[in-house]
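I'll show a record.
***
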Amino acid sequence: HPALPTSSLPPHPTMGESDYSFSLTTFSPSGKLVQIEYALNAVAAGATSLGIKAKNGIVLATEKRISSTLIDESTLHKISLITSNIGMVYSGMGPDSRVLVRKARKAAQAYYRIYKELMPVSQLVREVASVMQEFTQSGGVRPFGVSLLVCGLDDEGPHLYQVDPSGSYFAWKASAIGKNMVNAKTFLEKRYTEGMELEDAIHTAILTLKEGFEGQVTERNIEVGLVGEDRVFRALTPAEIKDYLGEVE
């Protein structure tokens, strides 16, 4: 066949953002890494989680979505203990969060083995954020589909950090992630006061979850964790959550 005259060839389409979405490590023309934005979409589809820093502690709270009445909800845990004084909650993909929990625990134990003291919260967060960043810059991997809220009380006082799939992290007085995060943040902005007590923070956390909750909030479909001046992070039992729910009625 004679070569086609160049004028009859279809015009080359300009590559749009979507043409760069298949490869994690390729920047789009506008300088975006589209896969990271998609990872944030996975987070935004997850159940709502929030954290509030009080003057004498921090509280984490999250919705526990149970897809079927046949599931034994006592086996579902979204709030994890990292060290005795640091806890973590996620929104997004559960299996991805487990990898980060395991790596965080390992990093904290490695620190303890060398220095014989508990790892400062800021250092642990930086370690976890570095892992998440690695997964935005390596071939053959995808970013983590979770955002984390990490809280702890150390020698420098109470801390609350949010870590996103890009590996960026910030310290917050109060923050929310997941499906209802925009409304939850607005609610927190209205209710948050400097120097609030831990008890007030627990009530505010539960009220914030109730605000955007589909259906009835019970002790079985939310989870609450806290660390106080005793520097011991723990998840509240369903009975304790039930008492707090009664208080905020």
